[in-house]
């Protein structure tokens, strides 16, 4: 009897084995628990890490609706702040768009992801949910059967396993779910956008009452409030840049120049507590299902942070998948599950399209050749149309907040 066979035969089982305790995995888990569907969440990291990992925090109106619909919005209602203004700064001046009066008139809600994740897992555990921290999913076995199983390893390296009727891969881009897909099972659409950002978290109050998008000949700069005491900044940098090569002084000097602080007001400085380089790239898996293995969130596809869609797509997919799993496991209706992939991909591709539009709005095409100079004129026309055309502003608002 092989090790994996002994692991399989001696393990636990449930209806749905969920890999990953991020927004996708935790929304899915809470909804399945509420519907009385058995599930377990396997999370590689420990609770402290999951609850303190600062990532996104810009929730679309639909995400707030989903969380409210399922009683998951208490923390968000207490600590979230509605937000609806973008400020664009260019060499030709600046303009603001208050999108609460554009398109469908919906705002974003600023609520740090680590606080949302903490709310979701606290609620899941308080309701009797089974969440295994420090339990890594090593591989998903037999996904094309009605008894897929997940090989696991705990913090001490001890092997284990969980069998389910279904496995939900919500373990991100580098997780076990993607790794366990047989060759040719899905197609991966990829695009490297050729742009990199230095992603910064500063212990400084926001300097604008808006999301700031600065388009400067030295490169893009972005300003996003996170809390009254912390601000996320982005600085376009050379691909392959090491974060350590940017001192705090150099960061604030460059932000000051690109945000045109001399014209529009000084930035509040503070300690830089997080500095990472993000290469803007996207990928989309198709289909989002292989037999009894489903993919949601970043495991289904990576989207660049240019339009703050990642966490919102994760929550949307989690609700669609949860309702479809309940229909199958509780109501013996496999229809919605068979439509899960197509429904999610329609939202994902729309978000990818807008995310690329934002990349082309905010960044100059590299180089000085004819193509680059032509693209630059197109980019300037895009900015000018956004500044002056109400129709374009409505389209922008619907896609910026919509998901
Ligand atoms: N086994 C168990 N857990 C794993 C494994 C594994 N092999 N690999 C990764 N994980 C866990 C990670 O530790 C993480 O907690 O899976 C979780 C995935 O969570 P997220 O990365 O937040 O992914 P998702 O829920 O899809 O949300 C993605 O959130 O932060 C935003 O913009 C970001 O788009 C992203 C979105």
UniProtKB/TrEMBL annotation:
Domain FAD-binding: 14-354
Top-rank lineage group of the source organism: Bacteria
Entry coiled-coil feature ranges: none
Keywords carried by this UniProt record: Oxidoreductase
One Gene Ontology MF term: FAD binding
Top EC class of this enzyme: oxidoreductase
Transmembrane intervals: none
EC number: 1.14.13.2
Listed name of the protein: 4-hydroxybenzoate 3-monooxygenase
Taxonomic lineage from the root: Bacteria, Bacillati, Actinomycetota, Actinomycetes, Kitasatosporales
